Amino acid sequence: MSELTQRTLDYYRQQQYQPGWFDLLSVMINGMLRNAGERESHAFLQQMGETLATRYPLGALQTVADLETQINAVLAQFNWGFVDLQPRESAIVISHMALPPGDGLMDARQWRQALGAVLLGLYARWLRDQGGNPAVSLVCEETESDATLNFRYQL
Q1: Distance between terminal CA atoms of the chain?
Q2: pTM score, two decimals?
Q3: How many Cβ atoms from other residues are within 10 Å of residue 42's Cβ?
Q4: Which phi and psi angles does 87 have, rounded to 5°?
């Protein structure tokens, strides 16, 4: 990645950081991880993502392109980055890019995993609401980038 590209990415990620709110979220996630453990914390965060999806429903959509557009409209309201949906033969891959940065005090991997849990709940609920089968799994996959997570909805 060129220095200019990195500076541009850093600028946009800085725009996502909201002092106070992200600090509080980081403190809460750190507290959950210390007190309840990773598995229980991620289950709770995933449930919170599902609840968020009910507050911001997408409505009935006809195409994957429509789904991508509507998801990005909601993410833009949150300043949470954007997605690129890639239909495959038996799967849909949701690449979530420009993840909000943490506060720098929390381990970056733990931060991404916590956001991944919230987004997993959010995307799973939206996909079910579009007629997706609840038995079909949605999994979060780490990437090489600190700013990207992939979610695989495997049929």
Answers
A1: 34
A2: 0.87
A3: 22
A4: -70, 135
- Residue 148: partners with Cβ closer than 8 Å, 6 or more residues away: 95, 96, 97, 98, 99
CB 99 within 8 A of CB 147: yes
* Residue bearing tokens 């506060």: 103
The Cα 10–Cα 59 span in angstroms is 33
Q: What share of the chain is helix, strand, coil (3-state, %, to 5)?
A: 55, 15, 30
Above 60 in pLDDT, residue 11?
Answer: no
pLDDT tens by residue, 21-65 = 777 888 888 899 889 989 999 999 999 999 999 999 998 899 999
Q: Does residue 85 contact residue 97 with C-beta atoms inside 8 Å? A: no
- 147, 13 Cβ separation under 8 angstroms: yes
* Percent share of the chain, pLDDT over 70: 88
Distance CA 52, CA 133 (A): 20
Q: How far is CA 86 from CA 93, 118, 130, 147, in A?
A: 5, 21, 16, 18
Closest to 78 measured CA to CA, from 31, 131, 122, 33:
122
